[in-house]
Amino acid sequence: MVESEICSREEGSAMLVHPDYRGRVTADWFNADYWGDKARPVSSGGRGGAWFVRAGDDRLVLREYRRGGLMARVAQHTYAYMGESEVRSFAEFRLLNMLMTLGLPVPRPVAAWYRKLSQVQYRAAIMIEQLEDTVPLAELILRLDSQAWESLGTTIRRFHDAGVMHADLNCFNVLVRSGEYFLIDFDKGRLMKDGTPARWKKASLERFSRSLVKVAGAQVREQVWVSFLNGYNRGMAT
User: Rounded CA gap, 232 and 167, in Å?
Assistant: First the structure.
């Protein structure tokens, strides 16, 4: 356990909690029904299972881990338990803490939770601080100028130069606020080891490119992509 987390266990579940939220977070926090009218669904992107939550003066986001694709038909909410170190919510919580330490633009993690349903299955959720006054990139694609796309490219390059692999870089996982860009949803993300072939960076950019086409069309993607790559390449580590 590191200084940026506190591990606690209650009622058959386990949690990691940021020290700033010590003594406040309980297992109930990860149940959207517990919040009543203080929780509202996040409407853009994802597979559902995310809510904006008001916890006193704090504005948070609760996100359940849910499967997509064919596996969702079999087990939408459950995952194979391979040991606590492999639990998805714990891994994302710890990764976000590391990225905060690196000074990268990500939301601060509040708490991570999981509950074993059997010896081989678990379900999980995470809470992060809401990045207020941000808008998903998907809603701004047609409104950003070339300078904005260059700035976004430079931001993505910062993550890549730090070895950060985002597993689902798309237009909904980039948030925008007054010329600032943030990445969210680091489920299955990781820090790549030094010396790892750079193919993962190319794959990440290709995934982002496909998302742009899906949301705005191939023609718009062509219009913005040169500016994005100009910023990405200018942001190369020296």
Answer: 18
